[in-house]
């Protein structure tokens, strides 16, 4: 039986993107929510909760972007020119928030400025990531295996909607993370923010879900034609169940479970994305097989991933285990 390495690589890239959304999503969410926390102990607890892990979380962005370039070079060559302004803005946002994270401790005289840079960089990074997703879903103009659109094709009402959806979703991850990791007034504030973020996320998720099938008849077919609908319908049903559990958990003041349920929303969103796009990497122009690197390149890279990914997963798990538990103003305890 032959092994389809292209499909394996598609799942590796999807896993890397999901891991990035999960791990960097909550600390970007904390940055988005940061201005709402009181100066002093609340902000310090929020920062301390991600201090040991925030930079390691961005490892998965390298895997997602670098893996796309290596395993699906044609897709990379089409998507990047189509979203250059968004990619540049995202990287600048990540740079500003990274610098601000370090300098707010070392330059207390300008802490208000660095807090603003941390929050602004987080917001820009989250918004542009959502808009990149929207730009891919709404379709990219391709001619002769190259991007043939204009500089501003990415800017549409749909991409703004997906951008705001990701901002709200990251805010939900950030608030539920803080519910789990903080205590006292910071935790009480996080509970209040979680309710607002939940409502915003679910409303925007519903809007995107209704808008997407209207973009292209093929999206409509993948979601509503038989027998596809028998599988696809499970995604909104499970999302509704998780949403109900989130509201119940918030009422009962659950802690870790709220964060895990929020991750469930993102997992179902990822599955929904797969339903819409599969097997295209650039809908409806380039399939994963059209975009794939030569077989020998895939085999060579797969050997490297087979060695490095378990090490990354092991180190990440160990880091989160070491810094488990609540965080106070001075750090973990």
What is the element layout, followed by pairings?
Elements: H1 5-33, H2 41-50, H3 54-57, H4 59-71, H5 73-82, H6 84-106, H7 111-138, E1 142-143, E2 146-147, H8 157-181, H9 185-215, H10 217-224, H11 228-232, H12 234-251, H13 256-277, E3 280-282, E4 286-287, H14 288-291, H15 295-322, E5 327-328, E6 331-332
Antiparallel strand pairs: 1-2, 3-4, 5-6
Helix pairs in contact: 1-4, 1-7, 1-8, 1-13, 4-5, 6-7, 7-8, 8-9, 8-13, 9-10, 9-12, 12-13
What structural class is derived from the secondary structure elements? mainly alpha
Mean pLDDT: 86
- Could you give a short account of the major beta sheet? 2 strands, antiparallel
Helix content: over 70%
Rg over CA atoms, rounded to whole Å, is 20 Å
What does this structure look like?
- It is a single chain.
- By secondary structure, this protein is mainly α.
- It has 15 helices and six strands.
- The chain has a two-stranded antiparallel sheet. It has a two-stranded antiparallel sheet with strand order 3-4. A two-stranded antiparallel ribbon has the order 5-6.
- A hairpin with a 2-residue loop joins strand 5 and strand 6 (331-332).
Q: Keywords for this structure?
A:
two-stranded antiparallel ribbon, 333 residues, mainly alpha
Can you describe this structure in just a few lines?
This protein has 333 residues and is mainly α. Helix content is 77%, strand content 4%.
């Amino acid at each position: 039986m032959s092994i389809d390495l292209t499909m394996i690589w598609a799942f590796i890239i999807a896993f890397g993107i999901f891991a990035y959304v999960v791990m960097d999503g909550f600390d970007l969410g904390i940055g988005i929510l940061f201005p709402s926390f009181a100066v002093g102990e609340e902000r310090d607890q929020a920062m301390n909760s991600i201090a040991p892990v925030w930079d390691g979380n961005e490892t998965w962005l390298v895997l997602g972007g670098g893996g796309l370039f290596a395993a699906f070079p044609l897709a990379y060559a089409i998507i990047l020119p189509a979203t250059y302004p968004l990619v540049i803005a995202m990287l600048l946002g990540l740079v500003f928030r990274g610098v601000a994270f370090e300098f707010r401790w070392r330059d207390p005289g300008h802490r208000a400025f660095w807090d603003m840079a941390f929050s602004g960089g987080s917001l820009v990074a989250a918004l542009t990531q959502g808009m990149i997703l929207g730009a891919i879903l709404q379709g990219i103009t391709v001619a002769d295996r190259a991007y043939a659109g204009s500089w501003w094709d990415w800017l549409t009402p749909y991409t703004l909607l997906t951008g705001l959806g990701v901002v709200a979703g990251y805010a939900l991850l950030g608030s539920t993370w803080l519910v789990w990791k903080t205590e006292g007034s910071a935790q009480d504030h996080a509970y209040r923010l979680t309710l607002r973020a939940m409502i915003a996320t679910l409303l925007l998720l519903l809007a995107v879900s209704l808008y997407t099938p209207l973009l292209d008849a093929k999206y409509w077919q993948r979601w509503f034609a038989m027998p596809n609908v028998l599988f696809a319908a499970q995604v909104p049903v499970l999302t509704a169940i998780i949403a109900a559990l989130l509201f119940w958990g918030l009422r009962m003041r659950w802690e870790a479970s709220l964060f895990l349920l929020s991750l469930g929303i993102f997992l179902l969103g990822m599955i929904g994305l797969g339903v819409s796009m599969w097997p295209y990497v650039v809908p409806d122009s380039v399939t994963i097989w059209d975009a794939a690197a030569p077989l020998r390149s895939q085999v060579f890279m797969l050997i490297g991933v087979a060695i490095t990914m378990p090490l990354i997963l092991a180190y990440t798990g160990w880091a989160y285990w070491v810094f488990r538990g609540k965080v106070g103003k001075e750090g973990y305890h």
